[in-house]
Write a structure and sequence with these properties.
heterodimer, A: 2 domains, 6 strands, about 35% strand, B: Rossmann fold, 2 domains, 21 strands
């Protein structure tokens, strides 16, 4: 199975927890005409990590790095959910049954329904198991 | 070994000490006779030049402090008239009123000779291009190194501080083999060079750094050496003594203090008694042959120790070890002495963080609260919060172990802490005591 086409490049940005940091990131991306498709902020005491799926990840990476941000690419996958009650349960059960541990996740309201973005430890293994279980994975080309 | 002046540099220690005694004796007689300031000081201390009968009698003499120069501003304690002076330098006054130092031609020559020996001991000489990126002007760093470098026949590139991109271009175009600047400025230069797409290690001829004018550590030295592909030597001196005067030799195991120029003592800052040999204390320096502004038992305020064991380089002059702090930089956190250099030393052993840090001290209720802000390295950034928390815990643990006091760590973005082109200001003390 070609798992590669399901691996999506998320950009992860280290940010101090102080006013204006998100604005600085968003402004930089806007300036480069980069569209943010999905996005989350994880916060800890004093700092946070901004995670985003964008249409031009390399360009976003270079731009933010040139501005001095600590930025990294992270491989994530996107699972299609039914946009109705119980939709998340179906997906979560599939992952649980397949023994896939979720590091973190966030949802994205896609053009064709809700999407769950997942960061898992064994990404290729997870892709195979999710596909075998019958759930729908979105291809990278949907995003970039 | 190549020496600038082998007769002096390889002289047996007993002979050096005899020379020091004679120089000290004549200096004290001269000052007692001609310097009202020093005459009064000796009277207060109830000591007469005749009481100086051997070298160790130096401990009978009164100390001098920075405040003596400030109180004597601008030239009240000079022992040469303005007509005899060929130059002034003025200290930055970061810790108070500025101080003025005057130099006769002999004073300048002595300073230059001291640096000529020092730079030669680092392996520099004719054929080298020495980029002097210390500030030129009132600060002693630029002009001091400039004359020292010219004296050994090297070619000087007097870039002074600032305009870093141009400095890097000139370093490449003129093939600088050595640079003299503060360690933090060299780190800044390395960062700017990388942004310009230039590797100092691979794309310049730089192989030697003469670094000082601010405290730094072995960890920082290793990082600079590995990253920039140079050998980094510590330099020591302060404007009151003339300026930067002494450096490490190629062995990089302490800074040779030329005994025929300076007499050093290490004392306990509280009891003012000499510490046991090899122990840490406050460095006290007597410059044995300065004309315009003699300094006797000058309490510089630097904490270090002295090593007079034979140096593998063959020079017989004792070495002071790396300055590990300032008497007045010392922070007292919940009753425990903390030197910013200890924090730096602890951080340098942690690959996940960068070279820059800032200490913020506050008083919360009755307790001192110490926060250390550290830049997370680009390579160590993980998208997982738990990984970053683990790094922070590791740093807190390391600091706790080396400082014996709790410090909270805040990880900040790379490049967000202030960079200084001169002396770094790494401590923000918000306590109003």
């Amino acid at each position: 199975m070609d798992t590669q086409k399901f691996i999506i490049r998320q950009i992860s940005i280290f940010s101090e927890n102080r006013p204006g940091r998100l604005a600085a990131i968003a402004h930089a991306l806007g300036e480069e005409n980069i569209n943010i498709l999905a996005f989350s902020i994880a916060e800890a005491n004093g700092f946070g990590v901004v995670r985003a799926l964008v249409d031009k990840p390399e360009k976003a990476h270079d731009k933010l790095q040139s501005l001095g941000f600590n930025i990294a690419f992270t491989d994530v996958i996107a699972v299609q959910m039914k946009d109705q009650p119980g939709g998340l349960y179906v997906v979560a059960k599939i992952l649980g049954d397949a023994g896939i541990n979720i590091e973190y996740s966030y949802a994205y309201s896609g053009k064709e329904g809700a999407v769950l973005i997942l960061r898992v430890d064994q990404v290729e293994d997870a892709i195979k198991k999710i596909r075998n279980s019958g759930a729908v994975l979105l291809e990278r080309s949907v995003f970039h | 070994m190549v020496c600038w002046d082998p007769r002096i540099e390889e002289m047996p220690q007993e002979e050096l000490e005899r020379m020091q005694y004679k120089l000290l004796k004549s200096l004290v007689y001269r000052l007692y006779s001609f310097s009202p300031f020093y005459h009064d000081r000796m009277k207060e201390q109830k000591v007469h030049p005749d009481d100086i009968r051997e070298l160790s009698d130096v401990t009978k003499l009164p100390f001098m402090f920075k405040r003596d120069l400030r109180d004597g501003y601008p030239d009240k304690i000079f022992t040469a008239s303005q007509e005899e002076l060929v130059r002034y330098h003025v200290s930055s006054g970061t810790t108070g009123k500025p101080t003025v130092v005057g130099y006769t031609q002999n004073d300048i020559d002595l300073w230059t000779t001291s640096l000529a020996r020092a730079l030669t001991s680092c392996g520099l000489g004719r054929g080298d291009v020495i980029q002097v990126s210390y500030g030129y002007g009132l600060f002693t760093g630029g002009l001091g190194l400039h004359y020292g470098a010219e004296r050994i026949g090297a070619t000087v590139l007097p870039t002074s501080v600032g305009n870093t991109e141009r400095q890097i271009e000139l370093m490449q175009d003129l093939g600088s083999t050595a640079i003299a600047c503060t360690p933090s400025y060299l780190l800044h230069m390395g960062e700017v060079a990388e942004k310009m797409g230039i590797s100092i290690k691979k794309e310049t001829k730089l192989r030697t750094g003469i670094l000082g004018a601010e405290p730094w550590t072995e960890g920082m030295r290793n990082r600079i050496q590995d990253w920039l592909g140079i050998k980094a030597y510590d330099i020591f001196g302060t404007s009151e003594l003339s300026g930067p005067m002494f450096t490490e030799c190629a062995e990089q195991k302490g800074i040779h203090i030329w005994s025929d120029i300076a007499l050093t003592e290490i004392i306990d800052p509280r009891t003012e008694e000499p510490v046991a040999p090899g122990e840490k204390g406050e460095l006290t320096v007597t410059i044995l042959r300065k004309e315009a502004l003699p300094m006797i038992r000058y309490r510089i305020g630097d904490i270090t120790s002295m090593d007079d064991s034979p140096c593998p380089c063959g020079r017989t002059h004792p070495r002071i070890q790396r300055i590990t702090g300032r008497v007045d930089d010392m922070l007292i956190i919940r009753g425990i002495n903390v030197f910013p250099s200890q924090v730096e030393y602890a951080l340098m052993g942690i690959p996940e963080v960068g070279q820059h840090f800032q200490i913020v001290v506050e008083r919360k209720g009755a307790l001192d609260d110490m926060l250390v802000r550290v830049e997370l390295n680009r390579e160590s950034f993980s998208d997982k919060i738990t990984d970053i928390m683990a790094i922070r815990q590791k740093i807190e643990h390391r600091l706790r172990n080396s400082l014996n006091v709790m410090a909270e760590v805040e990880l900040v973005e790379t490049g967000s802490l202030p960079r200084f082109e001169g002396k770094s200001k790494k401590v923000i003390d918000k306590r109003s005591l």
